[in-house]
Structure formats: structure tokens, C-alpha cells
């Protein structure tokens, strides 16, 4: 059923632990080159060496065949009514092709500087202004109504650095949020820009 569902890259094996040297009693698919009567694997043996109540299923581990194929594997232990481990269901899936594609995809999506930059995508210019103002105000952790003069100037400075005032209508919006007139915002901007020019000299 599983092999029929997942195709030729899948292999399903069932082991009967009554005879470990030829425990493989069922196999569908041909990834590992085994056949009925093949012995148990060393990984499963290592798990069976534990006390019976310590034997755990082994999900999602990576293995490699003699031919070099990379497999994603899981082993589920089968128990009888007395909780004795009597066998195992092993599922192997060949992920070699995905590993190859994964490397190519990783190369494609890698960023030159290794740095992730924040970018928000808005549906209107009003949302752009609102988003920029909200982002700056969040840094002050207080309502604009209780901000000191210096804090309001700093708020405008940060918005200027972000390019907020390149957007038409931003001055009116910022003035309304800060509880000042738009002329006051213009004065803040003039002071900020003058200081900036002076520092460049």
C-alpha cells in the first residue's frame, strides 16, 4: 500500500525477530538491494540491546545505501500482547533527488549579505504612512499625548530618516498623531535638516 502510494522511491520492510539472522519476512520496493531472508540491521540491533521497556521507535533518521542513495527512514517496533518486541516495520524513502534540488534551491535563495531586511507590503499609501509612524512610536513606548518636546522632535527625526516625508500628506498625518500643528512639524523638520547639513560640513 505505501509503496503503491509513494512510488518507486519508497521501500517498506517487515522484520520478524524470532530469527534475527534472516529476520526480513516482507519487502516492497528495492532501494536497499535486500530480499526476504536478509538479516536485521545494526541500528535495529543496537536498539534491541536495550531493556524491552526502553526500546523506542526510531523516526525520521537518515541512512545511506551501498550505492550512495540517501534515504529518510523510520523504524516502528511491533509488540505482542505482553509488550515484547517481536518485529519491526521499516520505511525507507529515497531523498537523494530532493537533496540535490535542496542544494540548488539553497544557492538560489541565499542572500548576499546573509542579512534579512524587514519589508512590509501595503495596499495603499495611507497604510504606508500609518505603518511607518506606528513603527517609530512603538520605540517610545508611550502615548504621543505625554511625549516631551524632545521626544516628538526625535520621532520626526526618525520618520525623516525613514523617508516618511517623501510621501505627500505625511506631514498632516504626523502632526495629527503627535497632537501638534503641521507648521510645528515643518519647524521640527527644518531644525533637523539644518542640523543634518551642518554635520555634513
What do these coordinates show?
By secondary structure, this protein is of the alpha+beta class. The chain folds into two domains: 2-98, PAS domain (Beta-Lactamase, 2-Layer Sandwich), CATH 3.30.450.20; 125-200, no CATH class. The chain contains seven helices and five strands, in the order αββαβββααααα. It has helices spanning 2-6, 42-48, 96-109, 125-138, 149-161, 170-178, 182-200, and strands spanning 10-16, 24-28, 58-64, 70-79, 85-94. Strands 2-1-5-4-3 form a five-stranded antiparallel sheet. Helix 5 crosses helix 7 (182-200) and helix 6 (170-178) crosses helix 7 (182-200). The longest helix has 19 residues, at 182-200. InterPro entries: DauR-like, DauR-like_HTH, YheO.
- Average predicted confidence as pLDDT: 85
Low-confidence stretches: none
Radius of gyration: 33 Å
Structural class: alpha+beta
In what range is the share of β-strand residues? 15-25%
Number of helices: 7
Sheet bearing the most strands, described?
5 strands, antiparallel
CATH architecture designation of the largest domain: 2-Layer Sandwich
- What's the CATH superfamily of the largest domain, by name? PAS domain
Summary, kept brief:
By secondary structure, the protein is an alpha+beta fold. The chain has helices at residues 2-6, 42-48, 96-109, 125-138, 149-161, 170-178, 182-200, and strands at 10-16, 24-28, 58-64, 70-79, 85-94.
Amino acid at each position: 500500500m505505501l509503496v503503491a502510494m509513494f512510488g518507486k522511491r519508497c521501500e517498506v520492510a517487515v522484520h520478524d525477530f524470532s530469527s534475527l539472522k534472516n529476520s526480513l519476512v516482507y519487502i516492497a520496493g528495492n532501494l536497499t538491494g535486500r530480499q526476504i531472508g536478509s538479516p536485521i540491521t545494526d541500528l535495529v540491533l543496537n536498539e534491541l540491546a536495550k531493556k524491552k521497556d526502553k526500546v523506542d521507535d526510531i523516526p525520521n533518521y537518515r541512512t545511506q545505501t551501498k550505492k550512495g542513495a540517501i534515504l529518510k527512514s523510520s523504524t516502528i517496533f511491533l509488540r505482542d500482547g505482553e509488550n515484547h518486541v517481536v518485529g519491526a516495520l521499516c520505511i525507507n524513502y529515497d531523498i537523494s533527488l530532493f537533496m540535490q534540488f535542496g542544494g540548488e534551491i539553497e544557492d538560489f535563495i541565499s542572500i548576499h549579505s546573509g542579512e534579512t531586511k524587514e519589508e512590509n507590503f501595503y495596499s495603499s499609501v495611507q497604510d504606508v504612512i500609518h505603518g511607518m509612524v506606528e513603527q517609530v512610536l512603538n520605540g517610545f513606548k508611550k502615548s504621543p499625548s505625554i511625549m516631551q518636546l524632545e521626544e516628538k522632535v526625535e520621532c520626526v527625526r526618525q520618520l525623516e530618516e525613514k523617508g516618511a516625508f517623501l510621501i505627500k500628506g505625511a506631514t498632516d498625518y504626523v502632526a495629527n498623531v503627535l497632537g501638534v500643528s503641521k507648521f510645528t512639524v515643518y519647524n521640527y523638520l527644518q531644525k533637523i535638516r539644518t542640523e543634518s547639513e551642518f554635520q555634513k560640513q
